[in-house]
Design goal:
The chain is α/β, with parallel strands linked by helices. The protein contains 23 helices and 32 strands.
Length: about 750
């Protein structure tokens, strides 16, 4: 008779792991117990089975949503006269563990929802150990019902039986509930200024009909409210754009299954797998139809997610629509709404009805967004189903000190390094408004509480005016911590290095703008990196950022300036409002505009020259259109010259001059766009080749918001691989500024290890 103590670490809470261990023990005839702890799941097995046999059986039969990072096994003294195997009460502590992410409704629950003979028939909050809310309902650890917002809903006899029966799929499923004992649905009408009463399905039937009639409904989901309406109704789509003040910005669509998506989009195997997975992110699919052109801002992609709640699934089925619009319910500059009182107060005039439930959303979590490149899912917004992101450090990455990183200014996230883990928060927005700053501070406090982090260093951006940097300095002074300032683009590259366990590379960070080490505005940077040693070796030749910050939203200013300097007559003829723009040229010669090397701004300029727009109503609107019009079959590129005087520099003016010549000879803009994309990719390859010759490095890392451009990323990776480089780009951490906090952590780790 032997007794073994197992500690399971990884995603082992909120995924039915304890019931799974219970069933394994019963099948193998073992006695003992299993319980949640802050570190993972602890189990003790006693019997005549070896620890190796137990381990092999567990690994071979893992629950589908669980994964194991580590199994610690110890032989201990047997317990005499022990009978049976039990799930015991969890330890009450807040030690670091893997927080379970929210899961979309599973196929078993979906079938039961529509099965008239099943007790969960039309249970709009149906869930089990394989699906349902997790991260958005957790108040503290460990993950037990009394530590979630489900604690207010006391089990009825039937739910208690399911929850307590080891062979039941809802055994110890913390979010399980039914129509008798669970949350309730409520429907508020703005027109009638009152609630409309009815049973859950009656309210869903009513809402479905109203959507077909051309109304907008705010629906409370797992991580916040969505605005739901009919994408086939041009009038209602126009109204939604106008009321949200987001003209041209693509709206997310929701579908019941992948077969519907295939009718309108090209879908590869990996996209299908991710779409059908429990994580249910919004995936940017390449469209093969011009339908929904207004919904997606005339871009080449459609953002579609699977109906991850029974409520959305039922409304889709009831309306008979292939898709419904399901976009975040928020106003410009304000985070996604999570509270029904706030929804009723703030959404009047934007929607017509508010459908909500009385289960509290503990933490706001937007829908995750990403796209597939080279069989990798590139995450651009971490949220429901992915957050919090957690990476276990390798032995070569480990340092003892704990680190807090506060990220950047846009697409903000915060990151923690605790022991051998790096944890990154959900998307926290752009820190331009009080509302987003309050959300950011709340999420920071929440993460520090959940992980009980005592940190030694605070990492932040080099830009002293960022709110996150100001906060870092305030916290450092208050708690006597050390601050590590990490340059923006260096952090981009280090985020990708972290997830790929690299400590040396050629790194390219292309984005909009970020304060450089020399005080200028960077955004086309190439680095040689060896552990904590970073040397900038490439950038575009500096140009004046004409218009300053205004040029970000109104890139026509910068485009006209470049065009005027290259070909005055062309500029005056090509731009209609030349009187206004000529004033910009005069101002450029009088005012001391900052020097800039940003590739993001150049994508804006080329987009303006190719009539993709003159203003960015939202971030990267013009570059997104520029990508959409490109001829994917074109392989030509523009000539460029590399200057080697100090760092490798390329003068963008020479490339823009060739683009203007193509415009003057009336070349198709799809051809020009493609050649420009190819040129940027070619620049990366040629610079990397020169650096390989000089420094004997063949690993290339790509990061930064410009590489959210799927065409550019695919071209660059393919061309580099053709030249036999080993190429890495962000997949686990966001490739845009959402990954900055992770990069700040890893840069600090390298400093601690090598200084």
């Amino acid at each position: 008779m032997k007794r073994y103590r197992f500690m399971f670490k990884g995603l082992v809470q909120g995924v039915g792991f304890r019931p799974f261990i219970y069933s394994i023990a019963r099948k193998l005839g073992l006695t003992g117990f299993v319980k949640n702890t802050g570190e993972g799941v602890l189990a003790e097995f006693q019997g005549d089975t070896t620890s190796e046999q137990i381990t092999q059986y567990i690994i071979a039969h893992l629950p589908k949503n669980a994964y194991l990072e580590e199994i610690e096994v110890y032989e201990i003294e047997p317990v005499e006269s022990e009978k049976g195997f039990y799930i015991v009460e969890s330890e009450k502590n807040r030690i670091s563990t893997v927080l379970p992410y929210d899961l979309g409704v599973c196929e078993d629950c979906r079938k039961e929802f529509y099965d008239e003979s099943h007790r969960h028939y039309h249970n709009v909050f149906i869930s089990c150990t394989n699906c349902g809310p997790r991260y958005t309902i957790i108040e503290t650890l460990p993950y037990d019902r009394e530590n979630t917002s489900m604690k207010q809903f006391k089990f009825c006899n039937e739910c208690e039986r399911e929850y307590s029966t080891p062979d039941n799929r809802r055994f110890n499923a913390q979010s399980t509930t039914c129509q008798v004992c669970g949350p309730r649905l409520f429907l508020f009408s703005f027109a009638e200024k009152k609630h409309i009463h009815g049973e859950a399905i009656e309210l869903l039937d009513f809402v479905s009909q109203k959507i077909l009639e051309g109304y907008i409904v705010a629906i409370k989901g797992i991580g916040g409210f969505h605005l739901v309406c009919d994408p086939y109704n041009e009038t209602i789509v126009k109204r939604l754009f106008e009321s949200k003040r987001r003209e041209g910005k693509p709206l997310a669509l929701v579908a019941r299954d992948i077969e519907v998506v295939k009718k309108y989009c090209h879908v590869n195997k990996m996209e299908e797998d991710i779409f059908s997975s429990p994580r249910c992110p919004i995936i940017l699919f390449e469209k093969k139809t011009e339908q929904f052109s207004r919904v997606n801002g005339n871009l080449h992609t459609l953002g579609i997610m699977r109906a991850y709640t029974p409520i959305l699934d039922y409304i889709l089925k009831k309306t008979g629509r292939d898709f419904l619009i399901a976009t975040s319910a928020n106003l410009s500059g304000i985070p996604m709404i999570i509270d029904e009182g706030e929804a009723i107060y703030k959404l009047e005039g934007i929607c017509d009805y508010v459908l909500y439930h009385n289960r509290k959303i503990v933490r706001r979590c937007d829908d995750s967004v990403g796209f597939v490149v080279k069989d990798k899912f590139v995450l651009t917004r971490p949220g429901r189903g992915f957050a919090p992101l957690r990476l276990k450090l390798s032995s070569t990455q480990f340092v003892e000190k704990n680190i807090l990183a506060l990220g950047g200014h846009e697409k903000a996230t915060v990151a923690l390094k605790k022991d051998d883990e790096v944890i990154v928060s959900q998307y926290l927005g752009d820190l331009d408004t009080k509302e987003y700053i309050d959300f950011y501070k709340s999420a920071l406090s929440d993460l520090l509480f959940l992980y009980n982090l005592e940190y030694d260093y605070i990492a932040c951006d080099l830009h002293k005016n960022y709110f996150s940097t100001v906060l870092a300095e305030e916290m450092a002074e208050k708690y006597a911590k050390k601050v590590v300032y990490v340059q923006h683009h260096i952090a981009h590259v280090f985020s990708c290095m972290l997830e790929n366990n690299l400590d040396s590379c050629i790194g390219f960070a292309f984005d909009g703008t970020g304060l450089g080490l020399d005080g200028n505005i960077w955004g086309s940077e190439g680095f040689l990196i060896d552990k904590s040693n970073v040397k900038r070796v490439f950038h575009l030749k500096y140009y004046s950022l004409v218009g300053g910050e205004k040029s970000i939203k109104e890139p026509v200013r910068l485009a006209y300036y470049f065009a005027y300097e290259i070909d005055k007559s062309f500029a005056e003829e090509y731009f209609a409002n030349s009187n206004f723009l000529s004033k910009i040229v005069k101002a450029a010669r009088l005012l001391n505009y900052p020097l800039c090397s940003s590739f993001g701004r150049i994508f804006d300029v080329v987009g303006v020259l190719l009539r993709c727009g003159e203003k960015n109503n939202f971030e990267a609107q013009i570059p997104m259109v520029l990508e959409s019009i490109a001829d994917k079959t074109e392989e030509g590129f523009y000539d460029f010259v590399m200057n080697f005087e100090y760092e490798i520099e390329i003068d963008i003016v020479y490339i823009l001059q060739q683009i203007i010549n193509d415009i003057k000879r009336k070349a198709d803009r799809s051809l020009i766009s493609a050649k420009f994309h190819n040129t940027v990719a070619k620049i990366v390859v040629e610079v990397a080749k020169r650096l390989r010759e000089n420094y004997n490095k063949d690993i290339v890392v790509l990061s930064g918001g410009v590489f959210q451009n799927r065409l550019l990323l695919e071209k660059t990776v393919s061309m580099l691989e053709k030249e036999h480089f080993k190429v890495y780009f962000n997949s686990f951490f966001p490739i845009n500024d959402g990954g900055i906090s992770a990069g700040q952590v890893y840069y600090t780790i390298q400093l601690l290890k090598n200084c």
